[in-house]
UniProtKB/TrEMBL annotation:
InterPro entries: Acyl_Trfase/lysoPLipase, NTE, PNPLA_dom. The active site is at 66 (nucleophile), 180 (proton acceptor). Residues 33-193 form the PNPLA domain. PROSITE patterns: PNPLA. A motif (DGA/G) lies at residues 180-182. This is NTE family protein rssA. The lineage of its organism: Bacteria, Pseudomonadati, Pseudomonadota, Alphaproteobacteria, Hyphomicrobiales. Residues 15-26 have a biased composition (Basic and acidic residues). It comes from the Bacteria. The keyword Ribosomal protein does not apply.
Length: 336
């Protein structure tokens, strides 16, 4: 089914209706969880899911974009423990080791090592067989269509959703080449509603510095850079190699450093994503929002999982009063 925006949207049959005669007031609202894009900051989604579960809230429907598709897909497949263990095991060295350079001409990173890790954990898992409805959002190369992946191998859908343009190779599914869904729907609230959610919780992990962007008027085009802004790119540092010229560098980025090609692309992508996010959430606002923003975490700081998961838990705790205004507080079960 195609949306009014011309998006290529693949949907699955809705869940079975309630039994005839069941009182409407007795039905618990279906909870949808929209997990947003944000690269490494997405490890905070794990903390969000843990904290929600500790408070008796388990989503009936999950939709994810980019890293949100990674964590959301693993959660829907019952693999949250595995993705958490993987995230906590990452170090700077391991993250860099997984960034294998691509020579295909389509990207900077081939992604073979990441693909292997996903395929090993999610081998044979099909989206339509998951115990709860799940969709991963991707963008079609060229057409710009928003694509909802709801059938087929889960690992393939996840890879398509996180394929950052220019950094990771696009993923071919059928006759379409797909890349990161953050270009069209960074926090997929609309997907949760389309899949039947009555109450949607959105998890926004956009950087707060971008969210508070401002206009800088009357900037002189001939202004001389300050002393802090005269440093060269990462590639100028002693001992720099080919990876310093091509791969994103966020671990040791300092104020005034000129970006290399990958860092410049990712910064541009972040700005575009932020503007799209504001527009989409204004047009279809969620019922509750968990804002897990973190200015001190870069897009490729995947080694900070412990910190990020804790931030996700803290952000969820702050949002719980608003969530419980609309969702009945879970009853405490006591053994007789």
């Amino acid at each position: 089914m195609s949306s009014d925006r011309g998006a290529a949207v693949f949907t699955q049959p809705s869940e079975a209706k309630e039994e005839d005669g069941a009182p409407e007031k007795a039905r618990r609202p279906k909870i949808g969880l929209a997990l947003g894009a944000g690269a490494a900051r997405g490890w905070s989604h794990i903390g969000v899911l843990r904290e929600l579960a500790d408070n008796g809230i388990r989503p009936d429907i999950v939709a994810g974009t980019s890293i949100g598709a990674v964590v959301g897909g693993c959660y829907a497949a019952g693999k949250l423990d595995q993705i958490e263990n993987f995230a906590r095991s990452l170090t700077k060295r391991r993250v860099f080791a997984m960034m294998d350079l691509s020579f295909s001409g389509m990207s900077l990173i081939g992604g073979d090592r990441l693909r292997g890790a996903l395929d090993q954990e999610l081998s044979g898992v099909m989206i339509e067989d998951l115990p709860i409805p799940f969709a991963a959002v991707a963008t079609e190369v060229g057409a710009g269509h928003e694509v909802w992946l709801q059938h087929g191998p889960l690992s393939l859908a996840i890879r398509a959703s996180y394929a950052l343009p220019g950094v990771f190779e696009p993923v071919r599914i059928g006759d379409r080449y797909l890349f990161d869904g953050a270009l069209v729907n960074p926090v997929p609230v609309t997907v949760c509603r389309a899949l039947g959610a009555d109450f949607v919780i959105a998890v926004n992990i956009a950087a707060d510095t971008m969210y508070r962007s401002k206009v800088i008027p009357n900037q002189s085009a001939s202004a001389q850079p300050s002393e802090a802004g005269t440093k060269g790119p990462f590639a100028d540092r002693p001992g720099a190699g080919i990876e310093d010229r091509l791969l994103p560098r966020y671990f040791d980025r300092r104020p005034g450093d000129a970006p290399n090609v990958a860092t410049a692309m990712i910064d541009a992508f972040n700005i575009i994503q932020d503007r799209i996010l504001r527009s989409r959430l204004a047009g279809d606002p969620p019922d509750a929002t968990i804002n897990a923003r973190m200015d001190d975490v870069g897009m490729f700081d995947f080694h900070k999982a412990d910190y990020l998961i804790a931030l996700g838990r803290a952000a969820t705790k702050r949002a719980l009063p608003n969530v419980f205004q609309h969702i009945p507080v879970p009853e405490t079960v006591t053994e007789s």
